[in-house]
Amino acid sequence: MKALGGAGMKDPTLEELIRYSITIRERLGIECIAEACVKHIIEKAEQRVVVDGVRSMIEVEVFKRTFVRTTVLALIVPRAGRYQYMFNHPQSVVRTEAQARMLDLHELSLGAGELLLLGPDYYLLHRGVVDQSSFFESFELQR
């Protein structure tokens, strides 16, 4: 969310975030977010880096083209658990189930469905709805 301050959005709504994600990709290209991440990683990174929030196979290809040893991990969480996580995350602008569904549909339009089917080297399967503090402790690795 810090980066959005530079875009003139201090407390953006979900609709503004979706509109911004579409606009920036239209202006700079579908791969622009991944390319900005690559630049930042090269400037700042140590040995290993985790990039959270990749939205498409195009973005994965940007990382694989730059970093030969890229591993793609998908977190698979049932809708109820995903929505609960969104509602409780301190930086989330998602407050209702309708907004969560809107965000899901937007991310599918960016290529998240293709990414989940074709991209991962590993899947982490969530084993149930848990509270915010133990959310990441409830996954099982699948290959």
The major sheet is characterized as: 3 strands, mixed
Identify the strand order in the major beta sheet.
Answer: 1-2-3
- Low-confidence sequence ranges: none
Helical/strand content category: mainly alpha
Provide the succession of SSEs: HHHHEHHHEE
Q: Which descriptor suits the 3D outline?
A: globular
C-alpha end-to-end distance? 32 Å
Binned strand content: 5-15%
The helix fraction, in percent, is 40-55%
Arithmetic mean pLDDT: 84
Give the radius of gyration.
16 Å
Q: How many β-strand stretches?
A: 3
Number of helices: 7
Structural commentary:
With 143 residues, this protein is mostly helical. 51% of the residues lie in helices and 9% in strands. The protein contains 7 helices and 3 strands; from the N terminus they run ααααβαααββ. The chain has helices at 2-5, 14-28, 32-44, 57-66, 79-88, 97-110, 112-118, and strands spanning 73-76, 122-126, 139-142. The protein has a 3-stranded mixed β-sheet, with no helix packed on it. The model has no long low-confidence stretch (mean pLDDT 84).
